[in-house]
Write a structure and sequence with these properties.
It is built from seven helices and eleven strands. With 288 residues, the chain is of the alpha+beta class.
Length: 288
């Protein structure tokens, strides 16, 4: 029922334009690099959890976590364990080490869903940690469990096929919506409903001229628009007139990162420590 209601609201609010919010509703976040979050599985599938010091269980390996640091060292190495001790002593005592793809990461928390209040609270806490005037985890973000990608009914619009179809140099896409159960891991019936809703959203967006894609996994179904190379993203930071215009234009057309077709309000603080509230912006994710 939660998804049916959200889908109806999505159609009524957005009409033919799909997930695009009304112009002027919210300014897109200009900090493109801050939006470079990786929500899809690594191209080299993550291995099982490994942490001699952190006691990560196999069950925890199948949940969402806040990524604090990526390392080039082995999980059991002295350098990794020293980094872990430093993170734990600097405000994140619950931090643990895991392997992800071919690398080693330090993460915190174990959540069934990225929209779970506890997950968002931990993310805000670590991002706002101030140590000697620095915010060492300001770029922290939520990473998903090892996901099993699921084929959809329209392979030409499946994000998993984008690099094969449009070039191996494709790296990023703009996430504008995710269909999932905000309260926890979706059931099989809910996942089926999510996949149908995502594909319908992509079909609508395509009719409206947007280069939309879907991605199905065991956490839900994501809707994205556009494909970008690393160079195109980097150009967004250039002072050259017109640099990064394609991506910025797309962010202006799709300024919000929706959940089940609806806006999500995020609370935070400004530079003066005053509470703020804004709709979650759309953000870049890596193409799997």
């Amino acid at each position: 029922m939660w998804l049916t209601v959200a889908t109806m609201a999505f159609a009524a609010a957005c009409g033919v334009a799909g997930c695009a919010s009304k112009p002027g509703a919210s300014k897109p976040d200009p900090a493109l690099r801050d939006q470079g979050k990786e929500l899809f599985p690594d191209r080299n599938a993550p291995t099982s959890s490994v942490d001699a010091a952190g006691d990560v269980t196999e069950a925890e390996a199948g949940t969402w976590s806040v990524l604090l640091m990526t390392l080039k060292t082995e999980p059991e190495s002295r350098a990794t364990q020293a980094a872990l001790r430093s993170v734990r002593s600097n405000g994140v005592p619950e931090a643990v080490v895991r392997t992800r793809g071919e690398g080693t990461v330090i993460v915190a928390g174990s959540f069934e869903s990225p929209t779970q209040p506890e997950a968002q609270q931990l993310l805000r806490r670590v991002k706002e940690l101030n140590i000697d005037g620095q915010r060492p985890y300001a770029m922290a973000y939520l990473v998903p469990p090892q996901a099993t990608a699921v084929k959809g009914s329209m392979p030409e619009w499946d994000l998993r096929n984008a690099r094969q179809r449009f070039g191996r140099n494709i790296e990023y896409t703009l996430q504008i919506n995710i269909y999932t159960n905000p309260s926890g891991r979706p059931t099989a019936a809910e996942l089926k409903e999510c996949r149908k809703a995502a594909e319908e959203a992509v079909r609508t967006l395509r009719k409206d001229g947007a280069d939309a894609f879907y991605y199905h996994d065991n956490a839900g179904s994501t809707v994205t628009v556009g494909l970008f190379t690393q160079q195109e993203v980097d150009e967004g930071f250039s002072l050259r007139v017109g640099a990064g215009k394609g991506l910025r234009d797309l962010q202006q057309k799709f300024p919000h990162g929706l959940v089940n077709g609806g806006g999500v309000k995020e609370k935070g603080t400004d530079s003066q420590g005053r509470p703020t509230e804004q709709l979650r912006p759309s953000f870049l994710v890596r193409v799997p």
